[in-house]
Amino acid sequence: MTSTPHHAARRAADTAAGPVTLSTEVAEALDAGAAVVALESTLLSHGLPPGRNLEVAARLEDTVRRAGAVPATIAVLDGTPLVGLTGAQLERVCAPDAELDKLSARDLGPALAAGGSGATTVASTSVLAHAAGIDVFATGGLGGVHLPLPGESTTWDVSADLAVLGRTSILVVCSGMKSILDIPATLEVLETGSVPVLGYGVDEFPAFYLRSSGLPVPHRVDGPDRVAGAMTAHRAFSSAGMLLANPIPAEAEMDRDLHDRLLAEGLAKVGDAAVSGADVTPVLLEHFHTASGGASLDANEELVVANAELASRVAVELIR
Questions:
Q1: Per residue in 85-123, pLDDT tens?
Q2: Among candidate residues 134, 173, 120, 145, the one with its CA nearest the CA of residue 15
Q3: What is 108-172 written as a DSSP string?
Q4: What is the DSSP letter of 37?
Q5: Fewest CB atoms less than 10 Å from the CB: which of 31, 199, 228, 318?
Q6: Is 33 helix (H, G, I), strand (E, B) or coil?
Q7: % of the chain beyond a pLDDT of 70
């Protein structure tokens, strides 16, 4: 069902993304002032193999519900931005022959106008979730500044996730940014965008597959209530979002030596194949998944489930 006039008015005031369509469950939760957690769809359609992606989708939504919130998986289907998917829509997103485009925030307008279908990234999910009035979004890893390719000293490849988070008032819960990225540079860009970076129960910033990057987090928080308090105070004077970095569960962390070897191999592979732009991350992640014998897929699943659980607990605190 589409949203109520109240939500339509809020969307018009907060974003130029246009109207969104809410599932019945999400619309009723928002109308009732209940906790809602946004979930992206690129992880499902582009980050996990068919079959497993649908299992993870169900596990994520179940995790959110068990923690007391309502899941809102987001995607664009046939020109309609959907906030909250039905079972049939989830199956379509996860189907082997789905052939969904990967839609960042900049792609939403053209895709909607053309009646296209696509999975949403962190950037576009944040925009659509905020348009619907959702305050919390759980994902795996944030995009960031890419490492220079072998033989190069600089890069202009910077994820749109960072700019969108700098202007969209939403809490993104993740396990840091993917360790295939330049984490120090990414943290500097977040600082420039006035995005508060919190570490959940840790003093060192996590690195996706690894619990620590060795870099300090600007602010440590212990407990969902502390996160909610920080977000509420921040939003009183800033339109920027907030990043909550939640390290991968200790039992799911990848072996560091294996991780470092796979990263070096993946970067060399990208350089040899002259891969660039949006194709770099998929190639690197595919190398991780294949060369690790699936260990990176297991790690990815466990960290995103942990983030969904934490995000739900924070969302519940935000409505108290």
A1: 999 999 999 999 998 999 999 999 999 999 999 999 999
A2: 134
A3: HHHHHHTT--EEE-HHHHHHHHHHHT--EEE-S-B--BBPPPTT-S----B-HHHHHHHHS--EE
A4: E
A5: 31
A6: coil
A7: 92
As a whole number of angstroms, the distance between CA 231 and CA 226 comes to 9
Which alpha helices (H) appear in the chain, and where do they start and end? Answer: 5-14, 24-31, 42-46, 52-66, 87-94, 108-113, 122-132, 160-167, 183-192, 224-235, 256-272, 280-291, 295-318
Alpha-carbon dihedral sign for residues 213, 216, 218, 220? positive
Residue 316: which residues within 8 A CB-CB, separation 6 or more?
A: 35, 67, 68, 69, 224
Q: What is the pLDDT of residues 113-151, one digit of tens each?
A: 999 999 999 999 999 999 999 999 999 999 999 877 666
Q: Which residue in the block uniquely carries the two structure tokens 């996706």? A: 208
CB 249: neighbour CB atoms within 10 A? 14
The answer to whether 170 and 136 have CB atoms below 8 angstroms apart is yes
The CA angle 87-283-209, to the nearest 5 degrees, is 75
Burial of 83 by CB count in 10 Å (0-12 exposed, 13-18 middle, 19+ buried)? buried
- Nearest Cα neighbor of 285 from 181, 160, 185 is 181
Burial 222-231 (b: 16+ CB within 10 A, else e): eebebbbebb
Q: Would you please indicate which residues are annotated as catalytic (active-site) residues?
A: 40, 178
Which residue is it, tokens 């305050």? 135
310 CB burial (10 A radius; 0-12, 13-18, 19+): buried
Give this prediction's pTM: 0.90
* Distance, CA of 219 to CA of 227 (rounded, Å): 10
C-alpha span between 198 and 221 (Å, rounded):
6
Angle 140-179-307 from CA coordinates, rounded to 5°: 20
Q: What is the phi-psi region of residue 201: left when phi exceeds 0, alpha when psi lies from -120 to 50, beta otherwise?
A: left
Q: Is 82 helix (H, G, I), strand (E, B) or coil?
A: strand
